[in-house]
Amino acid sequence: MYKFIFLSPFLLIGINVSMADDYEDEVRKRLGLNTEVAQVTAISNDDSESVPAGRSGEIVYNLGCAACHNAGLAGAPLYADDSQWETRLIKGLEMLTSNAYNGYNAMPAKGLCMDCSEEEIKRSVEYMLEALTIN
Ligand code: HEC
């Protein structure tokens, strides 16, 4: 009995601390502030190549591809135009990514995104393909 009374304040402190952690986690979750999300946000504002996660397909597209693919410049297949992508779709995501990353005729390597990683180019190609209704 004596031992129990002696130890109980420590037990209580332990419980309080872990409850506080849970509470903070819960608040962070509800605010959409879990650490992964925070990282991606920080990364999308950063242009350096050393960033492991990289930018989203949409960000890369607007940054490095839209200039040509929104206007059909130099014969670039138009964004979201099924008929202009029909014959290219057959090549598959890997080949299209490789052509966008390495260059293909008038399509310059990496478009206008000189510091893009292959993964980022792949995401932007996926973003372009998702705009089609025939895939
Ligand atoms: C300077 C203009 C320009 C920019 C910038 C540009 N493209 Fe292109 N893209 C083209 C042209 C032109 C073609 C057509 C090439 C051909 O078929 O001869 C093309 C074709 C493609 C193709 C089809 C390749 C194939 O094998 O049929 C993909 C995929 C592509 N671009 C992705 C991208 C992505 C992703 C970006 C941005 C990272 C981008 N492009 C930026 C001009 C551009």
What would you note in describing this structure?
By secondary structure, the protein is mainly alpha-helical. The chain folds into 2 domains: 2-33; 50-130, Orthogonal Bundle (Cytochrome Bc1 Complex, Chain D, domain 2). It is 61% helix and 0% strand. It has helices at residues 2-30, 35-44, 57-64, 66-69, 82-89, 92-102, 118-130. Residues 11-17 and 35-43 have low confidence and may be disordered. The structure holds heme C.
Question: What composes the largest sheet?
Answer: none
Structural class: mainly alpha
Overall average residue pLDDT: 80
Give the topology string: H per helix, E per strand.
HHHHHHH
User: Termini, distance in Å?
Assistant: 72 Å
> Quick one: how many beta strands?
0
Bound molecules: heme C
Number of helices: 7
How is the secondary structure organized here?
Elements: H1 2-30, H2 35-44, H3 57-64, H4 66-69, H5 82-89, H6 92-102, H7 118-130
Helix pairs in contact: 3-7, 6-7
The protein binds heme C.
Name some characteristics of this structure:
single chain, 135 residues, mainly alpha, Cytochrome Bc1 Complex, Chain D, domain 2, 2 domains, 0% strand, binds heme C
Short recap of the structure:
The protein is mainly alpha-helical and 135 residues long.
